[in-house]
Amino acid sequence: MSSSYQLLFPGKTVFGRGKFAELAEELAALKERGKFCYVTGRHGADLVRQTLLLRTGGVVFSEISPEVTLAEIDALVDTARENCVRYFVGVGGGSAMDAAKAGALLYHHEEPAAEFFYGRAKLDRRRVGLILAPTTAGTGAEATANAVLRDPVTEIKQSIRHATMHADLAVVDPALTDSCPARVTACSGMDAFTQAVESFLSIRANDFTSPLALRAVQMIFHALPGAFRGETAARDLMAEASMITGIAFAQSGLGAVHGLCHPLGSVLHLGHGESCALLLESVLRRNFRAVPEKFAVLAKACDCDSAEQWIAAVAALRDQLGLPGTLKTGQLTEEKIQFILANCRSGSMKCNPVFLPDEEVRALLTEQRKA
Ligand SMILES: [Zn+2]
């Protein structure tokens, strides 16, 4: 376990059912200082108009796709500059919050997003306000300092990151997830679960992050089926666990599921949660061989008698949520496997408890294709 680390968080994090209403008060008090740019998906746009915009004024940018593109960030920054905004407020799922984070950071940078995405220009600190409120449970993006972006031309999907991408204020109100369709609850919930597991297993896990990640694994394992059925108490637990997960993995990093699911999702046009669901079981079986003692702890936290039983229960949870456990034959061509191999060596991959050489990654992907 790593005994040298730094801890970075949002300036302030507020959790609780009903807290979003208080955000309107807080923002209204800031409006004399400058203009707001609300960044949302289509669902979040109505919420923002009905609750925040009336009190604060400002501009709403809702042209954010589930996989945020570089062009969308450039358009967001242009809109924000035309309106001389002082605050970026991201209300939505991971993509809306990541767009707000990237927009706020790049607002004072002259170069287009691609220059930073490909590491050709150096990022400076953020100079405008940043407030985030998730409407899913969740990506944990309200607690992290990166934004996952995608270049549709090269199909590369990766993060830009900077310590000042942590929000000044994160408001996590489980009530915002009440209207989530079951499919979104399943996908974002499986993402949160994968992130909690990968944070716990990460080679950068430490005595600060491990208890948080383990508790989040336990909460999500027990609450996700109820949240999927729309139960309020379970939704509250999911929102809290997702936030805890974000705080943990922002420090510890993730693992091979996240390393692989960006290129896999990109070439197969699969959503992030679906990609996580698809890869988790295969990666867990390989990681188990490296750190069996950690798997015993995970199993115990989820009331399973053995690691083997726990992995089977995780696969059963995925099936119960209607998420894919395999790919259709022919979906993953040799060309696509080559793309994944060439683009999977990210920071997440380096945090995996066991190194997966190319032939092991190929075996893992082929296993997905076969069933
Ligand atoms: Zn994720």
Provide a descriptive summary of the structure in words:
This protein is an alpha/beta fold and 371 residues long. It has two domains: 166 residues, 3-Layer(aba) Sandwich (Rossmann fold); 189 residues, Dehydroquinate synthase-like, alpha domain. The chain contains 15 helices and eight strands. Strands 1-8-5-4-2-3 form a six-stranded parallel beta sheet, with helices on both faces. Strands 6-7 form a two-stranded antiparallel ribbon. Helix 7 packs antiparallel against helix 8, helix 10 runs antiparallel to helix 12 and helix 11 crosses helix 12. The radius of gyration is 20 Å and the shape is globular. The mean pLDDT is 95.
Summed up, the domain count is 2
- Structural category: alpha/beta
- Please report the number of helical segments: 15
Strand order of the largest sheet: 1-8-5-4-2-3
| Series of H and E elements | EHEHEHEHHEEEEHHHHHHHHHH
What helical percentage do the residues reach? 40-55%
Identify the CATH class of the largest domain. Mainly Alpha
Bound molecules: zinc ion
Main beta sheet, described? 6 strands, parallel
CATH 2nd-level architecture of the largest domain: Up-down Bundle
Give the averaged pLDDT, no decimals. Answer: 95
Name of the CATH homologous superfamily of the largest domain: Dehydroquinate synthase-like - alpha domain
Per DSSP E runs of 2 or more residues, the count of β-strands stands at 8
Low-confidence region ranges: none
